[in-house]
Structures are given as structure tokens and as C-alpha cells.
Amino acid sequence: MKWQGIFVYGNPIFQKRRKLWQELTVSNRNKEEPQAVLGDFNDILSQDEKVGLHPQPKIYLDTFRKFVDDNGLIDIDLKGSRFTWYSNPRNNFVTRERLDRVLVNWKWLSLHQNVVLKAAPAISSDHCALILETQPKVRMKKEFRYEAFWTEHEECEEVIRRSWQQDDRNRNCWNQFIKKRGRCIRELTEWSKRKFKRADKEIEKRKKEKVSELIREGEGWDLDKIQKFFHGNEIELITRTPISLVNKKDHLVWPYRNDGEYSVKSGYQAAKEEKDTMEKLAGGEQDKILCKLGCVCWCIWKARNQHIFQQKKLNPQNTIIHSEQITTEYHNATKDLNKDIKAMADRNGEKRRITWRPPPRNKIKVNIDAAFQRETGIATTAAVFRDWEGKIITGASSKFKSISALAAEAQAYREALILTKNLQIRNCIIESDCLPLVQAIKARSPLAEADAIIRDILQLLEEAPDVGATWTPREGNTLAHQLAAMAAVNQLQRQWTFNPPIQIMNIIRTEAGFAILQNNQRNRIQDNQVSSSTNPQGNQRDEGLPGRVERETWNSHATQGNRRIHNPVSTRQTKPTSRDTFNNTNSRNKWNEDSFHIGQMLSQHKCSNGHNVVENSTNLGRAQRQQGELQRGGELAPDEDGTHTMIGERIEAGDITLDGPQQYRNFHKEPL
């Protein structure tokens, strides 16, 4: 594999040398490619790399270290000599420094893991020549060791006897012994390789088999076995680790970067954060004591000055009380500083009215959300399927262990994809309020916190090209957010789609009302032959550039085939006034409220992943046709079963949404 080599000479003048480091950092556009920077830098990284009368100035060290950190470089260890430059004797003292070096990035080091850097003796120069061996030939003779357990095998004695009985026709006894011994070693080595497996490889294989036994195929961790073999904190760490359900291959990820790739800079930052955290935990109580002592001393000094210069009487008790008040105020102020900054940012932010956006008529929208409790690691998810009128088609909720809120959001997205596949819903939009998740899915980039889940999502999306991904603010995802929050506190029943709680019903009615208003507005625009560009919703797109999260808008081409069909038997064909439109809208909302009890149209469906979902029955098509006719002014007549049938109306293809009821009549599970 190709790699880039940059040869450097650092100017002895510090100002010019610093300018060179800045120019190299700015012009380096191939940081993700294998790179090696080598030469005479005329700089050192630490005081240990110099022996002389005067130490290296701190600004020199900091500038060179910043150059190395900004470019993600690693210093290759030098063998053969500690220093590469020697000065002429001054005052009977020789200054020695390591000015020559080789700096490489992580990509280069991963290609040449056995690299060796050697310093040759300085000949006719004050610098040592450097020898960089990317593929060193290191041959170590492995000594033969006779294993005691070989003796227990019945073939061992025969192998030894056969190798020693061969005649070499050599009169020299010592040469005969050497040859027979070598032949015996070779035959024993070959025989042991055939008969015995390597213990280290066998142990590693057994470990993988044991780990696989802790996973239930297609479901996740086997909690019964984990609780049987592990204890306490180990169980928490195992169950919080997300695992793949679709893509079975394991991958190594670096948890301190979003893309999961290791870099020297992120490693340094992680080590520094860990060090600062340990110092804070170890010295937190000491800081409080010193702070309190400082406040006491300050109050004593202030009381002393007031007594001397203002002739105030000393009151030791008031001085102690005052110092405690100052200490408390300081701790409260520093503790709530971040909260105050966040509150100020919230007050300065603009308020916008954001509501749920219904999908086009030929699509289903799936809103998902997750609730995560950091203390317990328990996460709950909710997914709700709705059509362009805001009517619920089905829904699901689940509870599991997770490591973070982002991992829980990713698992909610994966469960929604699996559910759409099992229910054979091909043309849909999955909407989430987690912006980093949607960005990662559109850019097809990994997330370290949920790497296994993201890989499953990308593989499932490849199998479902008609499934889109969109982002919405929290205000546009109110229903899924409320469902996840209620499931987290066990306030959501399994049959919530049959009999939704009051707060859920209110959200559904409100958002369904917005959907109907938007649909009516779109129909009026089409009737008046107004260009679709005046539609405030714009054009809805499901696919965009990778990494770019686009707002979901209306697809004008999808709505052209769903124009309103005028009633041929209606006794009035007058255009409704604004008052008639208002009353008609109210009647539609009233009908939506009455017909929303989808318990008459849904039957319970048990999904393979243990979630409670509800599917439509054959009454869904009838209910949708009835609503379409009611919106055009038709009348309903009661049937024998208590339902209503349209009188004197035509049923056309445009009146049946979601590709007709047959699409949801034969829901069944599919193995992944």
C-alpha cells in the first residue's frame, strides 16, 4: 500500500521554525492517509531528549508538541543511540540532543507494525544517520522442548525409536548423534502438530463459543445464563452492550470518537480526561477544605482591618458565620454555572410552532423515540405507524438494557425496520428526533456508541430501498415521545392501540386535525389550479445527499392522482363558503374522533422480537372509504353489523389509501 513521506528540515531560528510547523499543519490535507514525516526537526519533545548547560525553552517544546498533536503523529522509538546530534565542546561540556526523528500517523503504523528505527554512528558529521526498517528481518531460533504429556500418547515411543534406528553410515559417533538427534526433533515436532492442537488457539475458540452461548438467536442477550454465570456489575456491563441481530460480524471500535476510529489525539484526550477525573475524585474533599480555610482567613483579615481602621468591635462568631456563608455561595455558584448558561441559551432561542407532518397519501410514517435512564441503564422505545390522515395503523413498544440514549435511539430505529419488514410495509418513512442518528444513517457512517446496531440498520435499509429516513424536532415527535416516556414508568398498557390513554388520545386527535387541515388546504389549492409551489409544505423528499438531513415535505407528483372526486348524486353542487368549510371541518374532526377506536379494525399480532403490535383487519378499507365519502358530503346508512355504508356514491381508486386493505389483511412474521 502506498504511503506519503514528508522530509523536513527545521530552521535553527525559532520564529521561522514555528512558521514552518503552521504551514505544514494547514497544508496537510491527507491526514487520513498513511504518512511519515522525517528529517532534522531542530526541536525536541521533552527535556529528557537534551543534555546541556541550558534547558530547552518551554515555548519551543509547546510549539513542537502542538504540531505533533494537530497532525496526529507518533514518534518512533530510536534504537542504538539516545541522541542524534552532538555539539562542539564548550566550557569542557558537550551538548547532546535528539533533533532527528521519524513521526508517523496511526494509519502508517498499522501498515508497518514491526518498524525499527536505528541510529548509525556519526561519521564526518555532527548528526547521526537514521535507518528506518519497515520490514525488519528478525529471525529467532525456537528451542525444542519435549512436552511431558507426549509420553502418555501411545505413538510417541514409536516415533522416537524410528528416528534413532536409521543408519547414517557415518563412522564418527558424534556426527551420528547430532544427525539422529536433529531427525528425532523434526519428527517429534511434525508428529505433535498432527496429534495435538495449539492450546492458545483452542482456548480462544472456546471463549468465542462460550460468548455465543450467551446470545439468543435474533433476540439479544440470554439474561438467564448471564445471571447464572456472572455477578453484580459484570451483568450490568454485559447487558448494556449492544449486539448485532442481523450483521453477525464483530468489529473493533474506539469509544472516544463518534466514527469509532482511533487517533493519537483522541487517545491523548481520553488519557488526560481519565487523569483529571481521578485527580478530581481523589482531591475533591481537599479542595473543599482549602476553600473553606481560605474563606475563613479572608473573613478574619477583613474583620482585623475593620477593627484597626474603622474601630469596629471584633465578633469572632459573626466572622465564622460570614465565612461559612461565603463558602456555601461559592459552591452553589460553581455547581449551577452550567445550568445558568443553558437556561440563558434557552431564553435567547427563537420559538417556532412545530407540529407533526403527515406523509404523502401513498406512504406510511413511522415515528420512533426512546427514553433512557442513565442510573439503571433501562431504555424503552416506542414506534407508531400512521397514514396521511393521522390515523394509527399499528404501534409497538419495548424495554431493554442500553449503554446510552443514542444507543437506545438506534435500537428503536432497528426495531422499526424489523417491524416494517415483518408486516411487509415497503413504502414508508421512519422519522426520529435524534439528529446524530439520522445523520449517521444518511451518511452511512458508524457511531461508536451503537456500532453493531448501526451496521444492522444499514444492512436492513439496503434490503428496503423504499424506506426513507427523516429528522424532526422534538415538538414534531410528540406522540412517540409521550409513548416512550409512559412505557418507561410502566403507564402504557400492552393494548394501548385498542384503548389509548387520555393524554395519548389528545395528542392523536390534535395531530390528526392538523393532518386534515393540511389535506383540505392542498385540495383547495388543486381545485383553484394554483401552482403547487405555493404550498407551505413544499415538496417532500425521502432521499438526499449522504450526511445531509433534509426536512420532510410534500411530493406534488404523489398528490396529483388523489384529487377530490365530486359526488355525482349529491343534491347540492355549490361551492362551500368559509362558514361551511369551518363546519365541514368540525364534522370531519368529530367523525375522526368517533371512528378512531381502531380496536374494531385491528387484531393483535405478536412479533418475533417480543413486541406488542396491532395490525389492521378487513374493516380498514371500509373505514377509509367511508371517511373519504364523508369528506365529500355523502351520507352513511347503518348496516346490519352496526357499521355504515355510503348511499348513492361511487368508489374509485383514489378513495382507497395505503394500497387497499389487502396490504394489511395478510400480515405475517418473516424470519430475518
TrEMBL record:
Basic and acidic residues: compositionally biased ranges: 641-653
Compositional bias ranges of the Low complexity kind: 622-636
Chain ranges of the RNase H type-1 domain: 367-487
Region span, Disordered: 528-547, 555-592, 622-672
Polar residues bias spans: 530-539, 555-589
MF terms (GO), sorted A to Z: nucleic acid binding; RNA-DNA hybrid ribonuclease activity
Protein name: RNase H type-1 domain-containing protein
Species this protein is from: Arachis hypogaea
